[in-house]
Amino acid sequence: MSEIPFRIAATDGAARTGALVFPRGEIRTPAFMPVGTAATVKAMYAGQVRETGADVVLGNVYHLMLRPGAERVAELGGLHRFMNWPHPILTDSGGFQVMSLSSLRKLDKDGVTFKSHIDGSTHRLTPERSVEIQRLLGADVTMQFDECVRLPAPPAEVERAMRLSLAWAERSKAAFGTPQGRALFGIVQGGDAPDLRKASARALVDIGFDGYAIGGLAVGEPQHVMLAMLEETTPELPAGRPRYLMGVGSPDDLLKSVARGVDMFDCVMPTRAGRHGQAFTRFGKLNLKNARHADDPRPLDPESPCPAARDYSRAYLHHLVKSGEILGMMLLTWANLDYYQRLMEGARAAIAAGRFADYAAETTAGWEAGDR
Ligand SMILES: CNc1nc2c(CCNCc3ccccc3)c3nc(N)[nH]c(=O)c3cc2[nH]1
Fold it and tell me: For the tRNA-guanine(15) transglycosylase-like domain, which residue ranges apply (predicted)?
């Protein structure tokens, strides 16, 4: 098993706060991990991402194997050097992106063959190749190669993908070996079927991983189904290892999932919404394209320590967004990532103080109170 320590400093109900300790630094949990698809957190430079409070960013096998190529990144010193991010990096294993981005793909029990969405060239991913690519990139956290099905799906299809992912979990672990200072996470599948979720979690624990991701969610199911699957799954996972809910989510999703024992999150929402003119604030979500902001001299949040949220009027942000100005994307991405990091920072402090339920209630009330 891993020599990557996961120190749990406090618990509050099922919620935990602590830190994963890597040679490149620690990941404070609960943690939000900004998505860095093409070796960049879009519209942000690396130091700015760090200033928002991020301890770790995500990379991706699918995108980087297609462009610029895993061997090329390795030749250039690895992904940390390439993107000037000296802190931990978690890389996703590519299967999910193949199914959601590439055309003409053929999945078999051994792996997946697919055409690049960039130039139509043919590629193949197997558990072994995915783990090798993540090694070439230099990932601190490697994800097993898995198959995620969209919901709703027939139970037989969900079970087939869950069992295939377990076979690929074994092969991913065998290919990973025991590299010093690096972690390998298994991924729980099983769709919206409690018995399949429990079987998947128990089998992964028997194989043994440094951390456990909960996959196959945030794929179209209602929030209550996602939360119900968390309640079925986290009790089957070892309390002393981190849990990572993949692709989640909104601020409300994060608080409700932290309350159910999740430690790590990734989501394109704060960065994608920022590029589309939407801002996450203590008062709820604002769409700066809306004409009601055209004459509003107030910033997003005058009490925010983030310059993007404090030093620019909503009228100006509205103007930038309506004009399609690059600065609009930059400022709203910055403000959103800062908001997500502060949301997690507040959660960590509230858990340590034994008041997470109050924190979640106060934060949710702020969103509902809406704009002042
Ligand atoms: C949005 N909902 C959602 N996302 C899911 C992902 C991808 C998580 N994001 C990784 C990423 C990394 C870099 C760049 C872009 C994305 C999954 N990944 C895997 N391997 N397995 C899943 O079951 C799985 C389920 C998901 N649901």
Answer: 14-367
β-sheet with 122-125: strand ranges across:
103-108, 111-115, 122-125
First to last CA, the chain: 51
Give the β-pairing of 122-125 and 103-108: unpaired
2 pLDDT band, cuts 50/70/90, is low
Neighbour-count burial of 140, counting CB atoms closer than 10 A to its CB (0-12 exposed, 13-18 middle, 19+ buried): buried
Question: What is Dmax (Cα atoms) for the chain?
Answer: 60
Closest C-alpha to 172, from 202, 206, 129: 129
Question: What is the fold of 6-267?
Answer: TIM Barrel (3.20.20)
Residue from 139, 356, 148, 113 nearest 257 by CA: 356
pLDDT, tens only, 179-229:
999 999 999 999 999 999 999 999 999 999 999 999 999 999 999 999 999
263-286 pLDDT, tens digit per residue, is 999 999 999 999 999 999 999 999
Residue 372 pLDDT > 70 = no
Give the tens place of pLDDT for each residue, 193-205: 999 999 999 999 9
Q: Which residues line ligand 1 (CB under 6 A)?
A: 35, 37, 58, 60, 92-93, 95-96, 143, 146, 148, 187, 215-219, 246-247, 266
Contact 244, 214 (CB under 8 A): yes
The answer to whether 344 and 255 are in contact (CB under 8 A) is no
What is the reported pLDDT for 1?
Answer: 53
How many angstroms does the Cα of residue 226 sit away from the middle of ligand 1?
14
Mutate to test the pocket of ligand 1, among 32, 83, 96, 245 (most ligand atoms within 8 A of CB): 96
Instruction: Identify which of 254, 264, 272 has the alpha carbon closest to the alpha carbon of residue 364.
Output: 254
Sequence length of the chain is: 372
Q: Is 192 a catalytic residue?
A: no
The answer to whether 92 is a known catalytic residue is yes
